[in-house]
Amino acid sequence: MKRKREQERAGTSHAVLDDFDVFLNHRGPDAKATFVAHLEEALRCAGFRPFLDGRSLMKGNPALQSIDQALEVAKVHVAIVSKRYAESKYCLTELVAMMRSGKPVIPVFYGVEPVDLRWVENGAFAKAFVKHKSRGRTQTKLQEWRDALQALSKITGFRSADYKRDEALLKRDVVNEVSRLTPSNQPVDVEQFRVGLDGSVNRCIQMLEDMGAGPGMLGLVGMGGIGKTTLAREIYNHFVTRRTFKHMTFLEIHRDSSTSNVEVRPTQSMDLRKQLLWDLLSVRDNASKSNYSSWFQKLSSLGPVFIAVDDVHKLGQFEELIPFTSALHPESRVVVTSRDREVFNIVAGKSKLNHHVFDVCTLDWNEANMLFNWHAFQAKEAAKGYESVAEDVVRACSGVPLALKVVGSSLFDKKWDGDKETIWQEAVLMSKKNKGVMDVLTWSYDSLPESEKHMFLDITCLFLGRSKEEAFAYWRSCKDCMSCGRVPWPHMSLRNLINKNLVMSIQDYHLQGGFKVHDLLKELGQEIGMRTKRHFVNGRDAEAIVTKNQGSENTMGLNLVRSKIQEFNAENFTSMPNLHYLQLPRGCKVNGDFRSMSRDLRSLRWQAMPFTHVPTGLNLSLLTKLDFSRSTSLVQLWTKSNNSLESCSNLRLLNLNYCTSITRLPDSMGQSLQELRLVNCKKLEMLPPSIQHLKGLTFLDLRGCTSLKALPDSVGALPNLKDLSAYNCTSLQALPTSIGHLSSLETLYIGANPGCQISSEDIGSGSAWTRLWQLQLENCCGLGSRLDYDAMKSLTILSLKDSALTELPESMGKLIRLRFLTIQCERLQCLPNAIGDLKMLVFLTLTQCLNLTRLPKSLGAISSLEHIAIRNCPVRKLPKSLGSLSKLRRFWIRDCKNLQKLPSSIRFLRSLQDFEFVNCGSREAKGASSTGLQDLLECGALGTLKIQDSTFTEVVESLGQSVPLDQLAVGCERLQWLPNSFGYLKRLLILELARCLHLTRLPKNLGAITSLERLTIRCCPIRKLPRSISLLSQLLELKIIGCKNLEKLPTSVRKLLSLLMFKLKDCGSIEAMGALTTLQGLPIWGSTSITKLPASLGIVSTLIVYSNSSFFYGYRSSSYDTLQVLEEDDSGFLKACQHKVSGKLALLRGVH
C-alpha cells in the first residue's frame, strides 16, 4: 500500500525549476508507462519542459512542496483523467489547485467521458469517493474535489474515444493545444552592457503583479535619456522569458523628425497599429481607425496580453493605439513611458485602469562609474592614470545613462599621449561650468571632427525617417563640394557616430535601412542646426528666414512644408546661395527669376508644383532627389534645349506620383537613377526606350498608369531592377519578352488589360526569378498557370487574379516558403492536389472562383494554415480533412450559395477563434447549417461568431454552453427565436442582431450576459425589450435601428448606468415610444426636463444620446445642421437637427 501511494505521488511530484512550463496531472499506474510517457516525450521534442515524475525530482526537496511550486510556475496544465484517477487524493488535490490558478487547463478524458466527472455520486467515480469518505476525508475536501471535477468536465478537451485507439494522433493534438495556449514571444533588443537595472526591474514587476483584479497600467516617468526605454525593454523581456503572456507587443513612438514639436507622423501611427494587430492577433490589416477599433475589440478573446507603449507625450497618441481599455482581458498589463508625469496621469485617468507610477531615477555613483568606464575603456574600472579625470567626467554627467554612454563613447579613442591633459581636461572644464545634460551632450558634439559634425546635423535635421541610401547619395554628391564642408568618407563617419552612440542604424522594410537618434540628441542637433544657420527644419523658423532674408552662405537645409505661406519670390532665397536641401509647402507658387536661387540643390521636394514644366532658370543639375508628386499641371519635365537639366548625373530618385497630366518622360534622366515613381500618371502612354541606360534602377512603380499600352523591350536590360509594379495598368496589352530575364526581381505586380495577350513563350517561364518573394498577376491571360514555380524558391506572397486562368500546375507545391496565397480566377475549376505540400502557408484566400466546386482533400495537410477566407465560390462541400488544420484560427465563408453543409470534422479545429458564415448554403440544405453549427460549437476556443444566412431557422441550444464567445453577430431571415442558453454567454462583449425578419422577441434572460458592452438590434420585428436588460451593468453602447414593431422602451433602461451611447432610429416616433420620459434618470440623459417636442418639428424618429465623443464616431455634429436648440447648459445640450445627406430629422443629446 505504501509503495502504491508513492507511485501515485510520483506521478505528479516534481522538482521545480523556473524553466518548466507544462504540468502533467495524472495517476501514474493508469497511463504513465503508455500514453503519458509518450506525451511527455512529444512535448520535449516540441521544445516544452514538462513536469512528469521522479526524473524531475531534486534530492532534499519535499514532494508536496515541489507540486505546489510546479503548479505556480507552469504556464499550462494538462489533466489526464483515467478510470481510477479519482482514487488518488494527490491527483484531486492538484486538480483543485489547477482550477483555482486561472491558467489554461487541458483535459484529456482517457477511457472516461466528461459526464463521469459531472455526477461523481452515481458515475464511474462513485466508488472512489465512497473510499475517500471511509478514510475520513472531510466533507469540505470532498466537495472541493467534486467542484473541481465538474469544472473540468465543462472545458472542451480531448476524448480518447474520438481517436479510435490512435494515441499518436491524440498525442499530437494535445501538443498542438499546448502550443496554442503557451506564450511564445521574441525579446526586444537591449543594451549590451547594463547596470543599475535589477532593482528597478524587480520593483516594477512587483507593481504589475500586485495590481489585483482587472487590467493594470504601469507608468515609467522621468527626464529624457534617464533610461525609461531601457527599463521598459527589460520588463518586457522578463515576461517574454517567463512566458506569462501569450501575446505581447512593444510599440515605440518616434517624434516627427522634421520638426522640434511632439507631433507623430500619421504614417507612423498607422504602422504602430499594424504592428499591434500583427503581434497580438496575427492580422495584417490597413489599420484604418474604423477597422482598427473593430479588430482591437477582439483582444479580450486572447486572454491576458502585455502592451508596452514607449514615449507617450500626449493623450491622443495612446488612444490611437489603445482606443478602449475595456477590450483588454482582466489580467492584461500595459506599460507606458513618458517624460511628462501629467501626460501619464491623464492617460491612466481616462483609461480607468488600476495603475502605478514608477519614477526612473539617475544611476548612483558606483553604477554611473561602471557604465561610463565600460563605454570609455571597455572595462568596469578606469584605465590606470585616468581614474581621477574619469570620475570628474562622471560627476558632470549627473548619473544620466544617455550622457554617460555618449560622453564615454566619445572619449574611447582619446587616450593617446597628451589626450588626458587636453581633451579629457576640456570635458572636465565643461562639466564644472554647467552640469546640464544638454551641455554634456553638446560637449560630445563639439569633440567630433568637422565632417562628423556635418553628418550628425544632416541626420538629425534632414534624414530621420528617410532611407539610408538617400542620405548616402546626398553625401556622395558633395564629395567635391567646397561650400557645405563635405562628408568625404560617409561610411567611416557613420561608423564613428554609431560607435559614439550618437546615431543608431536601424533596419526598416519601408526605408530599406534608416537612422534612429535619441530624442535629446535630435533636439540638440536641430537646435545647433538652427543656431549655426545650417539647417532650418521648424516651419515657423524656416518661414522667417525666407521672408526676412536672414539665411546665409552656411545655410544648407530648409524645410518649409509646415509653412502656411503659399506664395514666395525666388529672390527670397538669394541669401542662401549654397542651399542643398529644400522642401516647399505643397501647392505653393514661386515667382520671379529662378536664376537667383541656389545652383547647388541636391534635394528638392515641391509637391503640387503649379507649373506645366520645370521653371526656366531653376538649376537641378546636381540633384540626387526630385519630388514633384501630385503636380497635376505638370505636362513635361524639361525640354531638350535645357542641357543642364537633362544631365542630372547624380539623380537617384524621381517622384512623379499623381502627376496626372504628364504624357511623356524625357529621353535623358541621367544614368544614376535608382527609383522612378510614376503612380497614377494617367496620361503617360509610354516609357522612353532610353530607360535601358538606367543600369542602377532598382525600383519602377507604374501603378495606375491607365494609358500605358506597353513596356519597352529595353526594360529587360535593367540588371539591378528589384521592384516592378505595373498594377492597374488597364491599357497594357502585352509584356516584353525581356521581362523574363530580370534575374534581380524581388517583387512583381502586373495588372493588365483583360484582353491582353501574354504568354510564357513571350517572357519565358519565370525561371530566372529565383529571388522573387512577392508576385501579383491580374488579367495576365492565364500566365499564372504556365510559370515555373519550381524555380521560385523565395516566393512568399502569391496573388493570382485572372479570368483566363483555368488550372494551376502541380509545381505550385514546390513553393516551400509561400505564406500568403490569394486566388481570384473565375474559370478556375480545381486547385492542385500539391497545395497540401505548402507547409509554410498561413493565409489562403479564394474569391470569385465561379467554377470552383470542390476543394482538394490535401487541404488538411497544410499544418501551418491559420486563416482561410472563401468568398463567392460555388463549392458544394468542404473536405473532411479540414478538421486536421490544428492551427486554423480564422475561417470565413461568404456568398458560397451552393454549400450543402459544414463537415462534422470542423469540431476538431481546436484553435479556431473567429468563424463567419455569411449568405451561404443552398435552399435544399435547410437544417444542415444548424447541424454544422452544432459541430462548430465543439471547437471550444471560438471567440467571434458571425452567422448571416437564410438557411438557418434556429440557433442551437448549446450555443451558450459550449464556447467562450466574446462577439456574436446573427443575421438570419428565417430565425424565429433565440435559445435561453444565451444567458450563459458570460464572456460576451458584443452582440448584434440584424435582419432576423421573424424574430419577435428576445430571451428573458438576456440580462444574464453581464459582460455585454455593445448591443445592436437592427431591422428585427421585436415588440419589446426584456426587462432584464437593466442587469447589463457593463453595457456601453445600445443601438436599436429599424425595429418598426417596437412598442415602447422599458423603464428598466434607466438602470444602464455605464451606458455611453444610445441610438434609437427608424422605430417610429420617439415621443410615441416614450423615449423622452423613459430616459429620465439615465446618467447619459443628464438633467434635461424636456419631455415633449415642439409641434413644429413634426415626427422625429431618430434619437442619439452620447457622453463621450469617441462613441459618437460616425454621427458627429458636422453631419447635421442644427434646426433648433431645445436646451443647453453646463451639463450638455439637446438639439433638433437635420441630416445633411438624408434630410431626416434627429434629436441629439450630448452630455459634457
TrEMBL record:
SMART domains xrefs: TIR
UniProt keyword Nucleus present: no
Pfam families: LRR_14, NB-ARC, TIR
Single annotated GO MF: ADP binding
Domain annotation TIR: ranges: 18-182
Keywords: Repeat
Residue runs in coiled coils: none
BP GO terms, sorted: defense response; response to other organism; signal transduction
InterPro entries on file: Apaf_helical (IPR042197), Disease_R_plants (IPR044974), LRR_dom_sf (IPR032675), LRR_R13L4/SHOC2-like (IPR055414), NB-ARC (IPR002182), P-loop_NTPase (IPR027417), TIR_dom (IPR000157), Toll_tir_struct_dom_sf (IPR035897)
PROSITE patterns: TIR
Record's protein name: TIR domain-containing protein
